[in-house]
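--- STAGE predict ---
source: upstream dedup step, 1 unique chain passed
mode: sequence only
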Amino acid sequence: MLDTYTTIWNKVLLRAPAVPSLLSRDWVTNAFREVAERRRWSWLVKSGQIIVPDSYNTGTVSATLGSPTITGAGTTWTPQMVGRQFRVGASAPIYTIAGFNSATSLTLDAVWGGSSVSSSGYEIYQCFFPVPDDFHAYMTLWDPAMNWRLWLNIQQDELNQVDAQRSNRGQSYLISFRDYSTIQNGTVNAPLQVLGSGPSPISGGVYTGVADAIFTVEITTGGASGTAVFQWKKDNGSWTTVTTDSGGFSQDLQDGVSIAFPVGPVYVLNDLWVVRTRAIAAVGVPRYELWPHRTSAYVFPYLYESRAQDLQDPGATLPRYIRGDVLLEMVLAEAAGWPGTSANQPNVYYNPVTQARHGSRAEKMIGELERQDDETSEIDLTWPAMGLPLAPWPLGDSRWLQSHAV
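--- STAGE serialize ---
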């Protein structure tokens, strides 16, 4: 039976009962983190895909200097476009779509900095791609259709030297770290009734909008859940009509905001509420730029090194390749170096010699884990390819490598 987080910190308390349980848990968590960050373990390797969507350029747009709002004419924009890039011509910066307002209105991640435009052509596509939440580093990224590996070690400064306008389009053959994405973790207040006196719904969710907003909810057909009908809008947007859920479950509105009409109460015609939301931005995950930019659907599979979960996280488990006795030795070294809370409450396990013995034993055991991991996946020995400028390696396909010694 494999050790668990709980069994390990309890084993510490068996040997050093003076250690508080919370301190023992913290030591185990830190010991696992230290081992996990020790090297690129094979059990941290995961796979993923960069899925490139088709570009969109139907209709025209208007943009005003100093405003983040883009207005479309003849457009059918969708919420799925949030996170993709927006640009008008090659001389203006590339912006990221931060918010969907309607089929004809979008919000950018920054104010429009170019000259104001009206009825202009535009393009929505994706060239900046965020990574998974547990991402640490790319190991390899490849193009199965073209039979080559993409380059990972190109910086933005190098790209700016050769293509500052980002006007190159076509087959991507490198990826470059761009920046960190922004995560919106805004709050949703409870509904405030401004008309009527009937029962109120329940709001919920995490607001993902980029600016504070007010959602208005109004009953247009009275009755119980499943019969009552309501309409809602965000700020001064258009109304959307929805029938209440017969089970009283939450129904999504927009930007992560949801509303629920519980079963039991009878909701009254023309009752009206406002739900205030507050935008809160936080640093997200790294974003990488594919270059040259692709404007048609495509997929790039990759392998990446993930970051291990903290053992205190809900649902976290100790990987079977990290033995519990290794972590126990590391934590016992901590316990042997802890004198206790006070002179009146000493830690009888405190002993510098014992601490050194546990530390030496732990180091030896970690070395054994590293050897076993090398037997699973040898990652420290690679054969570097020949030097490469910013262009695909013309000789680097599998057929050439199979027929030549390099």
